[in-house]
Every structure is written in structure tokens, then in C-alpha cells.
Amino acid sequence: MRHRSGCFPGNNEKSRSENIRQRARDEAEKKAVAERAAELARERRAELRHLCDRSGIPSSFDMTQITWSADYQTEFYSHLARAAYRLYFFRSEYIFETQRAVVVETPEAGHATYVFRRSTQFERFLALYISVTKQDIRKNRQNVANHLGFVTCVHHGKNIENWLAELTRYIGEPLSSIETE
Q1: Where would a tag sit more exposed on the chain, N or C end, judged by fewer CB atoms within 10 A?
Q2: Average pLDDT, the chain
Q3: Structural domain that includes position 75
Q4: Tens digits of per-residue pLDDT, 23-41?
């Protein structure tokens, strides 16, 4: 008995079970990668703590003091820092990883805040981000904006409440409820 398209009875069940097994392997691999990333973060934190202890830097020291510029405006930084669960510094930018987005900020008048979809492979995002310019992202050269998950840039403007409202709209987290210091 011939079947259309070369399909034979039983093949669908076999491919379904293969798909289920593959998804289970993928999930296990994702879990292993996430556990290893968490372990590396703990190791690096311990390493940094040890370095600070050896240098006489108290554990309460805010590392942003090392990178802070006199032209920076605390308001832009503090709202994002409270919403972030990870913070990176690159060039003159702070990279905030929040629950729903990655936000790149130079907390200075005249700049814009860049918003990206949160990547499940953050190291890959960082590797690509540090290899391109903001102009590459804005002009989507070599499709880089799409690869990074670029959503928008929010210009600082003169009114921080407008900036907060706009940013909250894009990252989906209530930044406006956070009081500035």
C-alpha cells in the first residue's frame, strides 16, 4: 500500500517522540548552562571581594564610584540601578540587565538610553554589543540591531519624568514609582 508524500504509518509518532526527547535535552542543556553561569558569577563575586579585601576596600564600597564622571546625572543612573539585577560597565556606559530588558545608559545630558529585548544568551549579546557602535545599531548595519534585539532609544530630554514614563513603557517595569535619592 502506497502512502502520499512517502509517509508511512508510525513515522509521525516517532518524530513526535524524537521532538519531545530533543526538547528535554535542550531544556537540560539550558539548565546546565544557567547553573554554570550562576556558579561563575558567584566565583567572580568572591574573587572581586577577595581583591577588594586585599586592597583595603570595604565591602560596602559602590564600584560605580570608580567609573563615575563629573558630568553624569545621578537620576538617570539610580532609577535603572534599582531595577537591575546585574550591572556592567563598558566604555562610558552602564549596561543594566533587568527582568524584561537590557538597558544601556550613559547618565549624561544629551545622551539617549538604548533598550534591547532581554537575551537568553547574555554573554552572546555582550560580545556582539561591544563589537559595534551606536551608529551601527541605529542604522541597523549588517542587521546588528535585529541580532541584538534593539527596541528603541529614549532621549533624556529636560524632564526626567517624561524619560521615566517612556522607558517604563518599553521595558515594562515601573521605574516611575522609584524615588530618586
Answers
A1: N
A2: 80
A3: 64-177
A4: 888 777 766 766 666 666 6
